[in-house]
Amino acid sequence: MKKVLFFACALFAGMAVTSCSNEDDLTTVSVSDTQTDMEVLSRFIDVNEATNEYYINENKKTRALSYVSDSDWQALQNVSPVNLEKCKKDLQTLNEQVAEAVSDPKVAYMVFSVNGKTIVKNLRNANFGFEKSEGTAVSSRTIPSTLMVYGGSEQTTTPFKDPSRTIRMTVEKDPFVTGYYFFQILSPNAKVNPDDNTTTPESVAFSGTGSLFNTSFTWTAYYDALENGQYNWEFKAKGSTPSSGTIATCRFSK
C-alpha cells in the first residue's frame, strides 16, 4: 500500500512540474510572438504626408530584399489580430498627438519618423529655420549644453551665446523606448524679447515609431537673436510619450 501511495505521489508531482513548465513555455512563446509581430508591423508603418497621419502600409517596400522577395509581406499576414489591433490603436493615439501639434500655432515644424525615413514638415512661417542635416560630416566644435527629454516634464539647457547662426543637434532616442514617441524641442530665442504674442512659433515636434531614422538636424537662429556679434541660444524640451522615463538625449555642436 505504501508503495502504491508513493508511486501516485511521484506521478502527481511529475505532472505538476510538467504543467508548470508548459505554462512557462506558453508565456515565453506569447511574449516572443508579440515582440516578433511588433517588429514586423514596424516595418510597414508609413506616413501620409497629405493628412499628417501614421498608418500601416501593406505595399511599403520595407527592405531592399522586398523587391525580390515577399517574405516580409508574408510575415505581416501572419501577425496576430490582437497585436495588429493594438498597433492600430497606438497609431491612433499618436495621430491624435500629431493633430494637436499641427493645430498649435506655437509649433513651426513637425518631424515624422518611421522605419526607413524621417520627414521634416514646415507647418507655418517662423523666425527660425530647422531641417535635417545631410551627410555625416564631423562637427568642428561640441557645445557643452546637453538637453535631456523626459516624459511628463520640461527641461532646458543653460542659455549660451555663439557667433554661428546655425547649430547642429543630434538626437539619440533612448533604446528602451520601443513603441511610439512624441516630444517637443523649443527655441525660446526664436522670437523677440519681450514678446506679447503668445502664439509666436518656437517649437519643433518630434513623432515616430521604433528608431529615430535620421538623428541629425540643423537649427538656424532668428536674426534678431544677434547681440554684439553673437547669437543668443537656449533649447527646451517637453516630453509627452512615453509619459515617464528618458525619451531622448539632445547634443549640440557647430
Please characterize this protein's 3D structure.
The protein is of the alpha+beta class. The protein folds into two domains: 2-88; 104-253, Jelly Rolls (Sandwich). It is built from three helices and 16 strands. The protein has helices at 2-44, 71-77, 81-102, and strands at 45-48, 53-56, 107-114, 117-122, 129-132, 142-150, 154-156, 160-162, 166-173, 180-186, 203-209, 216-220, 226-227, 230-233, 236-241, 246-253. The strands form four sheets. A six-stranded mixed sheet has the order 4-3-11-10-15-7, with helices on one face. A five-stranded antiparallel sheet has the order 5-12-9-16-6, with no helix packed on it. Strands 8-14-13 form a three-stranded antiparallel sheet, with no helix packed on it. The longest helix is centred in the N-terminal third of the chain and has 43 residues, at 2-44. The relative contact order is 0.18.
Features:
five-stranded antiparallel β-sheet, 16 strands, Jelly Rolls, alpha+beta, 254 residues, disordered N terminus, six-stranded mixed β-sheet
The number of distinct helices, counting runs of at least 4 residues, comes to 3
* Helix and strand element order: HEEHHEEEEEEEEEEEEEE
Order of adjacent strands in the largest pleated sheet: 4-3-11-10-15-7
Question: Based on the structure, what is the oligomeric state of the protein chains?
Answer: single chain
Query: How many DSSP E strands?
Result: 16
Class by SSE composition: alpha+beta
The CATH level-2 architecture of the largest domain is identified as: Sandwich
Q: Name the poorly predicted regions.
A: 1-32
Which fold does the CATH topology of the largest domain refer to?
Jelly Rolls
**Percentage of residues in helical conformation:** 25-40%
* Count of the separate structural domains: 2
